[in-house]
């Protein structure tokens, strides 16, 4: 059995081609840094098989110096750096919106998320070597080796985000080379943004005066209001999903768990994109009353999630556990998935609710 096949056995697989799988929630909460074997996988096309020795990354467009870089070039010409950051799919927790009305896309629960130490070089350093002149209207477009509907995967980010110190071209996660499904030999890591903006299997970077025209950028990953259907949706009118919103989920106990009366440990995660989580409230009665959870956040990792834990005393009967987080802007989460429902099921951030039975 291949190493990839063994890793698949640890995940909840939603699709084989493209390969998409999420982490079981209890295992997700086991380690602050999600193990490589347990890290969720989001693919849009078949996984490419790339020869690292022959691989090259080109940097072209509005540059003074066109670059053609090998993996060795990246390692020797630029300073290595590591950033601890959470990666999250824009469709994470889509299952909650599916319970309201049908939505498209994989039925992610809360496990399309993970945190790793990403190691590589700063994209800013590579762009400096390419002699990119600063410009407020410039964009950095990525093109990858994976193929989606007949053309290479492509997305873009602003030059400002591309030159931020946290944005990397990464060749390792948690101290080991990227596995094939996570972008070997090189991927972008754009902390705080939806995972779609951190493309894998990179082959070309283009600096240009407009966002990528690739369908993944120009047509998909757009947020629409609830009344807009797939037939009505005009991509030009949708909000392009970049920075991820405040979110939280209960990892333990599991939905539908049968518990013994008395104290129960409730644990989960919270994340606020590029902002800090400042409070996590947990309810044992569906939101009628709340208690504050104890938070665990690693210093020096502003783009990583916050773990939280609380002990609740639950009497016999049916209970609905719920969690809501608060961020540094004083914002919290909507109470119901109906409030932010959209036909693509993106950015599902309502209170995470877990029914349990106590005897």
Structure commentary:
The protein is mainly beta. The protein has a domain at 247-358: Immunoglobulin-like, CATH 2.60.40. The protein has 7 helices and 23 strands. It has helices spanning 3-8, 25-28, 71-77, 94-98, 123-129, 159-162, 215-218, and strands at residues 12-16, 19-22, 57-61, 67-69, 80-88, 113-122, 139-148, 151-158, 168-173, 176-177, 187-189, 202-208, 222-223, 239-240, 247-252, 258-259, 262-271, 277-283, 291-292, 294-296, 306-314, 317-327, 352-358. The strands form 6 sheets. A 5-stranded mixed sheet has the order 4-3-12-7-8. Strands 5, 6, 9, 10 and 11 form a 5-stranded antiparallel sheet that branches. It has a 5-stranded mixed sheet with strand order 16-23-22-18-19, with no helix packed on it. The relative contact order is 0.16. The mean pLDDT is 97.
């Amino acid at each position: 059995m291949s190493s990839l096949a063994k890793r698949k056995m640890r995940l909840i697989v939603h699709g084989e081609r493209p390969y998409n799988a999420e982490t079981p929630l209890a295992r997700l909460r086991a380690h602050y840094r999600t193990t490589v074997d347990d890290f969720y996988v989001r693919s849009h096309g078949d996984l490419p098989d790339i020869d690292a020795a022959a691989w090259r990354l080109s940097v072209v467009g509005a540059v003074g110096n066109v670059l053609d870089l090998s993996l060795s070039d990246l390692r020797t010409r630029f300073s290595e750096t590591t950033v601890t950051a959470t990666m999250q799919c824009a469709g994470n927790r889509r299952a909650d919106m599916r319970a309201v009305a049908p939505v498209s896309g994989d039925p992610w629960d809360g496990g399309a998320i993970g945190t790793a130490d990403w190691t590589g070089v700063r994209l800013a350093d590579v762009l400096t070597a390419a002699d990119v002149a600063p410009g407020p209207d410039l964009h950095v477009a990525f093109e990858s080796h994976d193929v989606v509907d007949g053309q290479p995967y492509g997305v873009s980010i602003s030059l400002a985000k591309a030159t931020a110190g946290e944005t990397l071209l990464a060749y390792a996660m948690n101290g080991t080379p990227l596995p094939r499904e996570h972008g070997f030999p090189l991927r972008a890591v754009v902390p705080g943004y939806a995972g779609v903006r951190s493309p894998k299997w990179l082959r070309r970077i283009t600096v240009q005066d407009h966002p990528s025209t690739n369908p993944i950028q120009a047509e998909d990953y757009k947020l629409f209001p609830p009344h807009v259907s797939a037939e009505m949706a005009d991509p030009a009118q949708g909000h392009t999903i970049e920075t991820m919103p405040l979110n939280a989920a209960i990892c333990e106990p599991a939905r539908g768990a049968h518990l013994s009366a008395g104290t129960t440990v409730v644990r989960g995660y919270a994340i606020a994109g590029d902002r800090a989580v400042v409070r996590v409230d947990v309810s044992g009665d569906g939101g009628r009353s709340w208690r504050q959870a104890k938070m665990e956040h690693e210093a020096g990792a502003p783009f990583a999630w916050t773990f939280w834990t609380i002990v609740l005393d639950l009497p016999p009967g049916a209970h609905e556990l719920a969690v809501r987080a608060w961020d540094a802007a004083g914002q919290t989460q909507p109470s119901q998935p109906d409030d932010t429902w959209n036909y693509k099921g993106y950015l599902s951030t309502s209170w995470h609710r877990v029914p349990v039975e106590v005897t």
